Amino acid sequence: MSELPTVGVEEEFLLIDPQSGEPDPRSAEVAAQAKRRGVELQLELSSCQVETASSVASTSAELREDLLALRRTAAQAAEAVGVRLLALGLPPVTPHKFPVTDTPRYRQIGALYGMVAHEQGISGCHVHVQVPDRAAAVHVSNWLRPWLPSLLALSANSAIYRNAETGYASWRSVLWRRWPAAGAPPFFPSLDEYERTVRMLVDTGVILDPDMIYWDVRASATFPTVEVRVADVPATVAETVLLATLIRAAVMTALQERDDIGRLAPAALRAAYWLASHDGLSGRALNLFDDCKAVPAREQLSALVRRVRPALEALGEFDFVVDELERIVTQGNGAMRQLRAWRQREDVRDVLEEAAAATLSGVDS
């Protein structure tokens, strides 16, 4: 592995009907249109979603340009089909259930997991960072555990669901944790213990295969990367790039600090997750390093920046992260903007218009 690890990002998007605002199950058509434009979109469990995957990037600038181009093409493909592409953690307007994509594996998941699968419609962001091997990925997972709530708060983008305020900045993360291997990853003392746990889940039929390890951090089974999956899909490319850069620096820091710091009381980590889901960026966070004291979420994010500052400086990204974090704190992340739009007149159309503008913010600049 090179001294500075590379990074890649997957973003999941919602497809909606422009008139009703409801999720529209035409992902296969959108993917076909995107392929004609030279972009491969992945199909998700719900046929109301598509996913983009960036190229491997060495700098935040490279990643930004790639993500902007991918959003542009995906949005154009959606428009050609007659639907709209939105970066939202959950659809503000929902059907009774979401159609499952018609593939053998997705049909099997739909049959086995029932309403957990049929109420999916969940869009996240997955950041992949290069690591030396799977053992290193497990160490990184342990190290990241206390910081995962802060990354969730930063990206929160699912405050409106079923035509109502949810009371949470990230309702997506609450729904997502219903899967049997989702949410905060357990602490694993070794790669062997990690792999034994995965085998147990598969052998008992709790999950179909290792691809259903949905923990918020997981070791890749095929590539020398660690995948951080804690985030709602951010509203804007700028927020995604900030998130990915922070995660990249955190992975670098974890690899430098070989002592695991992720041994936490389960109740404390669960409480920190709940608070991050509920309050998001605008409220409180639990400082898991100081007797679980409640502190402003922005203060806890600043603590993360300080902790990974040497790595950010090595990447040449420290000033970028500080400036972007200040901008997002001032302007609001996705959840905060959703709530501002909703509270004008409690009309979901305002939320959809806000999300549409954020999804393509910067695309044509």
Automatic annotation (TrEMBL):
Residue numbers spanned by region Disordered: 1-26
Coiled-coil region: none
Catalytic activity of the protein: L-cysteine + L-glutamate + ATP = gamma-L-glutamyl-L-cysteine + ADP + phosphate + H(+)
Uppermost EC category: ligase
UniProt KW keywords: ATP-binding, Ligase, Nucleotide-binding
HAMAP family on file: Glu_cys_ligase_2 (MF_01609)
General function of this protein: ATP-dependent carboxylate-amine ligase which exhibits weak glutamate--cysteine ligase activity.
EC number: 6.3.2.2
GO molecular function: ATP binding; glutamate-cysteine ligase activity
Native organism: Mycobacterium bourgelatii
Record flagged with keyword Ligase: yes
Pfam hit, one: GCS2
Lineage, uppermost ranks: Bacteria, Bacillati, Actinomycetota, Actinomycetes, Mycobacteriales
GO annotation terms (biological process): modified amino acid biosynthetic process
InterPro entries named in the record: GCL_type2/YbdK_subfam (IPR050141), GCS2 (IPR006336), Gln_synth/guanido_kin_cat_dom (IPR014746), YbdK (IPR011793)
Protein name (Swiss-Prot/TrEMBL): Putative glutamate--cysteine ligase 2
Family: Belongs to the glutamate--cysteine ligase type 2 family. YbdK subfamily.
